[in-house]
Each structure stands twice: as C-alpha cells, then as structure tokens.
Design goal:
By secondary structure, the protein is an alpha/beta fold. It has a single domain, classed as Rossmann fold (3-Layer(aba) Sandwich), CATH 3.40.50.2020. Helices cover 22% and strands 38% of the residues. The strands form two sheets. The chain has a six-stranded mixed sheet, with helices on both faces. Strands 1-2-10-9 form a four-stranded antiparallel sheet. Helix 1 (18-35) crosses helix 2. The chain is globular and about 45 Å long.
C-alpha cells in the first residue's frame, strides 16, 4: 500500500515495504551463512544509517561472528558533502580476519573509497561489502558490492535507517522523494 509521508519540508512515498525489506534481509543472511560457514567474520556496521539493517541482519546470521561499529559521515541534507569524516574509529582487532562491511546504502561509493584504504591498513584477511541498497547508476568509484538486498535508482530515499537531515531513520519502510 503506497503511503505519502512528510519529513521536514519534503514529501515521500512508499518505495519498499517493511515486509519486503525483512524478507530480503533474511535471504541475504542465508547467503552469508552459507558462504562464511567455515569462518568467524567480523561485521563492521557503518553508522548511523546501517543500524536497523545491521540489527535485523545479525538476528538472521547464525554463524559464529562478531560485530563492531564505525561512524562515518559524508551527507548533509539530500546531497553528499564530498568529504568523508571518520567520527568514531575501529575498536576491534581485524588483522587476518574476514571483515564484512554493513552499509545502509552505496551510491557514489565515495565513503567506501576513502574508508577502504584505511581499513586495509589494519591488515584484514579479506573485506566484503554488504549493503541494504545499492545505486549502480550513481557509482563513481571502483567499489564492488558483494551482497545487497536491493538495487535502486538514483533517487533520494528515507526510512529504515536512511535519513533526511537526521529525521526518518525510525521508519520501518523505505520511502522515495516525491
């Protein structure tokens, strides 16, 4: 059922229902459980946006694993600022470990393009990228998204962790700018 909501001064309409999100997160977790059954990966969730996705994903991951969080920022309003700021750093040893990055959305790839070299400096065994949403049409950097729940057009989205100037993260569905 399509619903229109308002966040700040903008109107959004339902794009992906909460039920569809949960089903795709479960399917993604099944792939991860199968692929990494012999490993003990570290999930590295990128805050703030990935908190809902990371939480729901971890509820479905059944293999031995750890999770940690890093806070990066590059958005203000509906536009990328073009600068990535690391706000809270890595607090777990990832040397010789498999790392699965958990992102809410990969669009231009700038955040990951700047973060991956820093992460590689900690000498992980390998790094995989999982994202709730992937915008291939917006990608401007050579970033490989190994696992994603949805490929979406280059539209501004809010809900399920994604925000518009700090609001809308708590919405259980994903909404598209009208």
């Amino acid at each position: 059922m399509e619903e229109t909501i308002q966040v700040h001064d903008k109107k959004f309409r339902t794009y992906i229902s909460a039920e569809t999100i949960q089903q795709r997160v479960k399917e993604l977790a099944e792939k991860i459980n199968e692929r990494f059954a012999e490993e003990k990966p570290i999930f590295l969730a990128i805050l703030n946006g990935s908190f809902m996705f990371a939480s729901d994903l971890m509820k479905q991951v059944s293999i031995p694993c750890e999770i940690s969080f890093v806070k990066l920022a590059s958005y203000q309003g509906t536009q990328s600022t073009g600068q990535v700021k690391t706000l809270v750093g890595l607090d777990i040893n990832i040397k010789d470990r498999t790392v699965i990055i958990v992102e809410d959305i990969v669009d231009t790839g700038k955040t990951l393009n700047e973060f991956l070299p820093v992460l590689k400096g900690f000498q992980p065994k390998e790094i995989f990228i999982s994202a709730l949403l992937f915008k291939p049409a917006a990608l401007k950097h050579d970033i490989k998204v190994h696992y994603s729940c949805f490929e979406v057009p280059n539209d501004f989205l809010v809900g399920y962790g994604l925000d518009y100037d700090g609001y809308g993260r708590n919405l259980p569905a994903i909404y598209q700018l009208c």
